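step=predict obj=Relaxase domain-containing protein n=1847
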Amino acid sequence: MMTLHKLTAGDGYTYLTRQVAAHDATEQQFGSLGQYYSDKGEAPGIWMGRGLAGVPDFPVGSTVTEAQMLALFGQGRHPNADQIQRAAQLAGMAPEGVDQASRLGKPYLVFEQANEFRRRSAIEFREYNSARGLAAVTPVPAEERARIRTALARTMFVESYDRPPLDARELSGHLARISRQATTAVAGYDLTFSPVKSVSTLWAIAHREIATVIEQAHADAVADTLAWLEDHVAYTRTGHQGVAQVDVRGLIAASFTHRDSRAGDPDLHTHVAISNKVQTLDGRWLALDGRPLHKNVVAASERYNTRLEALLVDRLGVRFADRPGTDTDTGKRPVREIVGVDGPLPRFWSSRRTVIDTRRAVLSAQFQLDHGRPPTMKESVALAQQANLETRQSKHEPRSYAQQRASWRTEALAVLGGDDRLKSYLAGVFRGESPRKAQPATDAWVNETAAMLLSVVASARATWRESHVRAEAERRTRAAGITLPDVDRAVDAIVAAALSPRLSIQLGAQEPVAEPAALRRSDGTSVFTVAGSARYTSSEVLTAERAVLAGARRRDGRVTPASSVDLALLESVANGVELNPGQAQLVHELATSGARVQLALAPAGTGKTTALRALAAAWRAGGGTVVGLAPSAAASAVLREQLGADTDTLAKLVHAVTNGPDVPSWVTSIGPDTLVVVDEAGMASTPDLARMVEFVVDAGGSVRLVGDDRQLAAIGAGGLLRDLAASHGAVSLTQVVRFTDPDTGAPNHAEGAASLALRDGDPAALAYYIDHGRVHVGDLPTVTDGAYTAWAADRAAGRDAIMLAPTRDLVAELNNRARDERLARLPAPAGPEVGLADAGRASAGDAVITRRNERTLPIGATDWVKNGDRWTVTEVHASGALGVVHRRTGRHVTLPADYVREHVTLGYATTVHGAQGVTADSCYAIATGAESRQLLYVALTRGRHANHVFLPVAGDGHPHGLVTRDALLPPTAVDLLSRVLARDDAPTSATSTVQELVDPATQLHDSAGRYRHALTVAAEERLGSAGLAAIDTAADAAVAGLTAQDAYPVLRAHLALCAVAGRDPAQVLREVLAAPRGLDDARDVAAVLDWRIDPTGRHSTGAGPLPWLPTVPEPLSGDLAWGPYLDDRADRVTDLASAVAALARSWTPASAPLWARPLLDRDVALVADLAVWRSAHGIEDADRRPTGPALPAAADARSQRRLDARVAHVLGEPGTVATRWTSLVDPIDPRIAADPYWPVLAERLSTAERAGIDVAALVRTTTSRALPDEQPAAALWWRLTSHLSPAVLAADSASARTLRPGWTSGLSAVVGNVAADRVVTDPQWPALVAAVGRGSDGGWEPAQLLSTAYDLLRAGQPDDDSPLPHELTTALLWRIGLLIEPIPAAGAGTPVPTVLDQPPASHDASGADWMVGLAEPDDTEHAPEPLDNDPGEPAATESVDEVGSSGVARKRLLELNQQAATFFTAAYQGSWAPAYLTDRLGSDLIDDERFTVGYAPTGWTSLTDHLRDLGASDDEIVAAGLGSHASTGHVIDRFRDRIVFAIRDGDEIPGWIGRRNPAHDGEGAKPVPKYLNTAETDLFIKGNELYGLTEGASALADGATPVLVEGPLDTLAVTLAGEGEFVGIAPLGVAFTDAQADRLRPLIGDGRPQVIVATDADPAGQLAADRIFWQLTERGADPRHLAVPNGKDPAELLETAGAAVLRRALADSASLASELIDARIDAYADRLDTVEGQVLATRRATEVIAALPTDSWPRHLTDVVVHTGVAPGIALSEVFDAARGIRVAPGRQGSGDVGSTAGSEQPASSDAGWTAGRGQPAGALTIALEAAQRSAVGVRPPARQGVRQRR
């Protein structure tokens, strides 16, 4: 077989050379490749492939060297790069030329700098050695390395998250993230060729001559396969976005053959490392196109298998046959082995691996127990080596091939019983049965084989590619025994016959435009066609699909009277089961539609059983009969209980109606009154469904297909459910009702919603599971143990738990363990037992599963023993038969002994496939990371109360894993599960494939790229080689080395177009080079020049078929060869764009993609234009950004900006919503706003606010415990949604159209006709229906509930800020959710995650019910009184004798800090620090008594040793924040080689802040943080402290102006330059906090100068100033803002311009409010000529004004009126409205919007009432407003007196 792995550049190749190429060693340390070869005697690697034929001057030779591997795979250069560069240097080339000489195109970006974790690990390793007196480079023992790495990972986790990791998943995930290498480039692919086990066994024990033949046959098969890949699979991509696939000269490959496995047993295998570098036929070096390689892996593997078998049969005369016992039920192909090479010898060598794996599992479990995390992949390999050594019976260190063979022979003799037995064994292989006569590859045989082959392929998939057919052709040729000379011809003939029109139909319309020769590959195919991508199907498949779809179009079936449906629903209620609205609607639709074939979709947990029971009752009540069918007999038995009708398998019906005899009576009874219900229809194959539909419809009956197209599907051809839903709609069960709280029984809406997100493949769903402790990690044995332990604990507690495993082998392992532990608990022996089909054993009391339908074993009148039935053993008979009782029905049966041996297995665990349809209390699923989305969805939806996944994140210990990308870029558990969700294995029908191929959106993307590329090629061909050579010459003459730049091909194409248009390329280059700005800072000169030639990006030819595409130049348009073709290409783009736009204009709210929904109700033309843009650029619908990612090309960027501006005109500026809410979430967890999910969450928060919900309070309520380390924004959303909405599937067009509960007609009376029409078509309509249904259950009348919710929604916001049309349904839904289920006190409603391996942490929290009632908060609450203490003095001081959490008295901590101050100041003058401060500030501060400045020496324990000498203990030093524990456990200095500033609090020093040595500032790795604070202690909390407040207290008391800056040097600069007029104050490395703002409160008001905010001028500083504004205005300030020239900070300004300039800048500081107001008005600058724009700008500006003291209002209002032209009355009204929204209570932060009265249900009673909370008398406010009005009226432009546009 052949496997494929990617190789990563940088370190990626080293594992190939050191661990794979140099594998088979048993020693723990891995040496170099050369050392391995010399020590072990392996044959060196060899070069293969034709890829270097284009550079013959430096032949690589036959042997691979490590230097060559480094050059090619590590750097992306010629293997002989060193030799080439030396030759270039000797030839006198410039450095640039030397660099270019060895390039194979663009070298890989390799980042050699170690990351922070590796750097700190190296320091810890050196400290470890130093503590033991060892050399720094001494290898640290593996266990100590692991301990140090774990401790460091924990430390870095705490540094990142301010808390320790909660579990192994968080710790291992963080270690994975921080240990990744920076280099990610793909360097190539590792193809591993391994013969079957019997070949390696025979090679190991046969005579040397035979072994040589076998090894050569293996090498020849490898070479043949590689040559085939070169001829059929090797291509590269060129053109815009790689639109053209072109031929290459061949592949560059390094081949390494190895002889044994890690266990030392014979394992002949070859690694072929294929370079990613390939050369086009015209000499360019580009990257290998990996798409064909991945698609042909199986075909190549089968080719290798076929060639090897044919070679061995031809050269040795051996025979091959299918391996006995191959389990074809699993879908795996039978493995062919050499006949006679079987028995104990292969089993012995395989058992050796098992022993090692068993021991490795024990070591790995102990590792995780010791370190709290699973081992990394490299650590797993080390553990496997340790296991190898510990389990070895005798020392195994083969020194050569001869020694290996001698060792294997010795083992073979021992196993087989001596030399004679070995000879007999070999003789049996070579003197076996006579080889059967070779099958001649005749035309008849070829055609017959092709037909059989296609029947096999079509049984597995509805469509196929050539690679599928070729792989099967190889298998059939191999099985037929085609002789070696005929193999290639036979395979090709079979493929040709199978893909001929006689047997296969190629899908998709042929491209209407035929390419000229320049756009064709050497085989004549178009470069725009991906090789091997053609899709085929058969007429049989299409006929079957069309038959089912045709049945769905018919509406002439039986219709059940509506009264019968109502009666059935009433009967259900009378029986205690009331259907929810979605279930009732499904029953009504399926019973009354008259459809012959109808689809019902039922996601997991939506109550399908209840609905089907009611459907059957309704149909029968109307006089009809019901028959049930299911894919399996076990499912049909369950369906029988649900329907109360005849049920059987779908296969039984198909067999009966196809074969005729012995037709069951229930089949013959099907007629016009019959309803056939097919459950789990998605698991049925298309041919079976088609045959069933044909029979039922012909009989006059009706069919209802019930299933879920997102769960596990048919093994064979399928995909019809999606076709039915797309073409004819589907009735859907939408409300998830399965998941409940185990204690209260209340619905778990969040898990239900997360399950639906899983169903859709949304990775945000994973946040729910990690937030609730549902994802567990380890290696496979460890997670298997964890799953079993959790399952066993649940079972012991009486809970119904199920345990799922990915493979039958693992299921068997879990079953045996469960049985062993059950027997161990028995007080006496279990009695007789019997062997089962899975090699397990069973006795009385065991759980078993039957694995085959057996109708001869009845269990009642209508039931029989079925595959998947679960039983409990009651008796073991002497014959081996089992007496069993059915676990669901309680019926007894005796299973015969032969049936038991072959078809019964233990039944404690099962596979995921076996669990579909099962529901339990809890589910524990083991995954591997290789599952599909469908498997994960099923696995995580089986449990009502909890669903856990156990995921291996460590390797299996095999060294080959070290060559994979995951070893160098280790994924987290979330990464692995995200891959699973991206792996959609849902079958696709031929009908869907055709629709995808002709989809205009997909075609437009292809056509636009093809047009662009064709235009370029046409221009270059018209110029010819001489013209292009002239361009190259002119380019290099203009700029030396220009033709070697990465972007030069693009520039040359542009110059070619210029030349075709009549412009001289040389002159064009001279003109652009004459531009004022030089090229010194250009990373790619060619790209810059290309842009300069034509900034529009249209390549100087004008607009083409789309605004951003160039048109065809006139000379090309008139070209007879190219003109018509290019015109056809342009027309094709235009036609497809029109089709895309027309489709977009037809979208409904339920059918539109997410990105379009906010725009759909407001600008359909814009939606159409965006759809064309997105389609042309291939932007996925999942990208919610209207125009997708920013594009660099000038023309694209220009069009994108225009579209973005149109979107902003409708929806507002992008990013403003996210920015607006950042200040709310940053104090909770700054990572929330960095989560990719944050924009989605922010939009939802805005919708909630517009719904009148107190978002800030709701968020605080749900964040009483820490968010997870990954996906924090998504996790927060799942916490919020549990309070807002039931878990309901979003509507599609069909379900939105059909779901109409009785109260729908009254909706118009509540929201109005237009809004009601919009609500019922919204995707959230089913959720609203479900919410109203829940309200009805709670006693609400629907009309009353809707009316109340709508009134509250409107009361919460002004009319012009009410929910947008696309938000109205969601807003109503959430409002209703909070009405019927109020939020509990903070923390009380937030479930704590389940932690299986440690006790849950305590999360005590308190808080009042956050829901705001129907009245405003008390408007008379006064602001806090000013403090009496001096500025900067804390409000209270703890007793010096008080002992805090550290256990050290406060007095002692202060004493230690004072001793540190003495130490630091003594060290100051002799250090670099005074000179540094003098340079920066003009003073070394030695004589300035206001400041305590010192220096912390470089040594690790300088201060620590000093304090110890003064009597301090290590615990005291750490408690004071002056020291910290190293990973070795020793206490070291916290501050080293830093200038330190004392943070004073009056006369006390609670902490320090240190600035690193500036000599380290330029180090890219940032070895230490620039500023470092004292760690938080009993004395020091950095969020409470302000540096400079105490130091400037005297000046502040005398009236100095406080200046809020960002760092300590800025503080000093302001204070020194201020000369008593200004005092610098800085927070300590954190965002300005409310606690710090409160410390400034005494400096605000009472005639004091206003605070100046002097944050940096960068975006971060601007955001900080915005945030600080709201914090200060809440405390009565009207802050100013320092505008520093050229973006400098105060310290830089002092250093460069002097104290006077800084002082003058401070004195000239303008109002910060004015800057914020101007910025808000500027956002609407292009709309101020409209009344709407004036009002919107004014509204945003007055939010700022309203936050200020009222005496500041007039001048700002005047500015607003002047700048916007708005009517003064509108401005005054807006400021009043904004003022009403101001809250005095803490929590108003950020943009000023978060703290609005979103939760208030009634408007404020008066304008004047608001003023009391601001410390302003109502009369003063009135006077101030009158003054503002007078000012406004005085400047009002008469032309701007407009009509008021608001309520």
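step=describe
DSSP finds 72 helices and 44 strands in the chain.
step=end
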